[in-house]
Structure formats: structure tokens, C-alpha cells
Amino acid sequence: MIPLNAVLAVSAVLFAIGAVGVLTRRNILIVLMGLELMLNAANLSFVAFSRLSARPGMTGQIFPVFIIAVAAGEVAIGLAIVIALYRNRDTVNLDDVNILKG
Amino acid sequence: MSPSLALFSALAAVVVCGGLGVVTRKNPVHAAIFLVLTIFGIAGIYIMLEAEFLAAVQVLVYAGGILVLFLFVIMLVDLEERGRLPRGPLGMKAPRMAVVLALAGALLLVLGGVWATLPDTAPGASNALRADGGNLETVAMVMFRHFLLPFELASVLLLVAMIGAIVLAKPKV
């Protein structure tokens, strides 16, 4: 049996790595990949609680399915925006996309 | 250290190293390959936690769908980044070899997860697990009894996202 805290620790580390990627990288594609890491970390917590908590249940295995669906939609829209951005501004660097900055 | 804990540690190391690779690589193609590694590691952990359906969905949707989408867009938009690939001493041979070895290791870990979790259950339970194909039936029961409306909403969301992506990526006519 795996201890619950070990899975939660992996999940926390993965979430932190994803957050660092989102906040520090300037390539919009890698920012999107960091978002995927954060969503996966949340899924891992759900599954860990559904199996290893004091009151196990199936709900923790249903929510990740919905999160994966939302992540798929988010990636589709995000990558379409990347293509539109590249077509209009010829860049995928977030620092070059500051037209809304005051 | 029990075998399952050792296997979990190995999978956790794969997940964390893959995540670090995603956020540290300069080249988005390499980052995408590390993302595959992370996703396979997480699928292995799901199998160890007896969420077989979720592991299958994870591999199908992420490695099969989202990663292909990422790679397509990288090919479309990031030509100048790909032109500046660092050359190893053997051309591109060494990094390519490392990626192949890493993916093979991840696959072995997942197979090891299947192998290590099956003997943990009683012989009768193990046979039942094989007979009904993992926890698919339980997941389906819960999803279509208690989560039917969210399920339908998720399908509407995917349809809207699909149409939105087509409209956004369509060249101006």
C-alpha cells in the first residue's frame, strides 16, 4: 500500500513545477504545457484521495475525467489562439504580446 | 521497502523529472517529449491506485490527442526555434537515443506497475478484476447515475471548444 502523503507530495511537487513553468517561461507553448502539468497534479490528488483516504469512493475517479475533458478543450482553444497570434504578430513570445498593457 | 512502494518511488521520480524537463528545456519539442514522459508516469501511478480506466483515458487523451496537437502547432509556428537545435557530438544521435531509452524505461515501469499490483489482491479478486476489465463498470455506474448532467455538459463544452478552435485558427477569408 502506498502512503497517501507520498502521492500528495508528488502531486504538490508536480503542481509547483507547473506553476513555475507558467510563471517564468516566455514561450506560450511551454506555458500551456505547464498548465497541463498543474491539471495533472490536481487529477493525481483526486485519485489518491479516492483510493487511499479514510473514506474511499468513486467520485474521485469521476472528476479527473471531467478535468481531462476541460483540459482538452483548453488546449484546443489555446493552441488555436497561438496559431492566430503567430499569424497576426509573428511571435510566440509572451513578452512581445503587450498590446493591452497600459 | 515493499515492492509497490519502490515502484511508486520510481514512477514519482519519472513524473518529477519529466515535469522539470518540461519547464527547463529551451526547445518546445523536447518539452513536449518530457510531457509524454510525465503523462506515462502519472498513468502508471493511476494503475497502482487501481484507477485503470483513468490510466487508459490519460494515455489516450494526453499522449494520443493533446500531445499530437502540441507537436502540430510547434511544427506550424516555431520554425526559427527548431532551426537552432543544439548539436551533440554525434549530430542529433545522443539526445534522440536518450529520449528512446527514457520512453522505454517509462513503458517498463508501467508494465511493472501492472505486474506488481495484480498479485497484491486475493486470487478470486484478481480473477474478477480480469473478468470485468478493471474498474470500468464501477466508473460507468457512478458516472451515469450521479454525474449524467455534468457528463452531457462536458460533451457540449467539447463541441463548443471544437467549433471555437476552428473559428480561431481559420485564416481570414
Helices and strands in order:
The complex is a heterodimer of chains A (102) and B (173).
Chain A: H1 4-24, H2 28-52, H3 59-89
Chain B: H1 3-24, H2 28-48, H3 52-77, H4 79-83, H5 93-117, H6 123-131, H7 136-146, H8 148-169
Helix pairs in contact in B: 1-2, 1-5, 2-3, 2-5
Could you explain the architecture of this structure?
The complex is a heterodimer of chains A (102) and B (173). With 102 residues, chain A is an all-alpha fold. Chain A has one domain (4-96): Helix Hairpins. Chain A contains three helices and no strands. The longest helix of chain A is centred in the last third of the chain and has 31 residues, at 59-89. Chain A is elongated. Residues 121-130 of chain B have low confidence and may be disordered. Chain B contains eight helices and no strands. With 173 residues, chain B is an all-alpha fold. Chain B is 82% helix and 0% strand. Chain B has two domains: 3-82 and 93-134, NADH-ubiquinone/plastoquinone oxidoreductase chain 6, subunit NuoJ (Four Helix Bundle (Hemerythrin (Met), subunit A)), CATH 1.20.120.1200; 135-173.
What labels describe this entry?
heterodimer; A: 102 residues; mainly alpha; Helix Hairpins; 3 helices; elongated; B: 173 residues; Four Helix Bundle (Hemerythrin (Met), subunit A); 2 domains; 82% helix
What is the number of strand segments of chain A? 0
Specify the helix fraction band of chain B: over 70%
The Cα radius of gyration of chain B reads: 20 Å
What top-tier CATH class of chain A fits best? Mainly Alpha
Main sheet summary of chain B: none
- In the predicted model, the low-confidence regions of chain A spanning at least 5 consecutive residues are none
In short:
Chain A is mostly helical. Chain A has a single domain, classed as Helix Hairpins, CATH 1.10.287. Chain A has helices at residues 4-24, 28-52, 59-89.
